[in-house]
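Reviewers of the previous submission asked for a worked example of the structure-prediction workflow described in the proposal, so we include one complete record here. The input consisted solely of the amino acid sequence. No template or homolog information was supplied to the procedure at any stage.
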Amino acid sequence: MPEAIVARHDGFIAWVKLNRPDRLNAMNEELVKELSEALARAEADETIRVIILHGEGRAFCSGDDLKDLDAQTVSEDATQAWVEAIQQVTLQIMQSRKIVIAAVHGWCVGGALEWVINCDFRLFADNTRWFFPEVSYGFFVTGGVTALLTKQVGSQMAKDLIMFGDRHDAKKALEVGIAWKLFPEDQILAEAEKLASRIAERPAESVAEIKRAINEGFHSSLADAMRIETAATVRGFLSVESQARAKEF
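From that input alone, the workflow returned the following structure tokens.
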């Protein structure tokens, strides 16, 4: 079976690729676990300055793999463990001393979009399509986005994006401030590498401290938001109505 995450270190860059293209890189237990492990290895490697997240095939990531919903909701403990595993990746991205770049193309949905919002720089290909489907199922968002997205786009726009779950294009991501810059799909990885090179030219310790200071100041309520999200997401996953909506979707 192919690895759900393919990670390689190229000089000062850790390339971390979501690698379930037959499922549009949807999030399952294996992918989340391997992603967490890849991030931990990159964090421990002193030669790595930048982590670039990207996806194989036609999408960055289509969100939670709903084919695994039964396993994720078999018990409250199982649901709690699943949500906490997703939230652990958020903490690894945001607390990392490395700069994390998201190079996004194709579909970027739900939990994957939340991870992208956690990243330091977000490059979107011009073919990117993104949305938050969770509330449509009766579920809840993760990744600290109830705090992070509100501060990035304003409370009214955050409510719009999360509550209604409308599908948007790359231009909308740039307009509201989710995307840093847009590029043609065939240039997205090269542009991510150029950005990584610019970052690597700066003193490593200063860059790490700038990230820490900005994140701690800007996202001061992240921990509280994630606690609220985790509890609400567990309740949503275990709801009979929500499970039925997700399976119908």
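The longest helix spans residues 76-95. We consider this example representative of the routine output the project will generate in years two and three.
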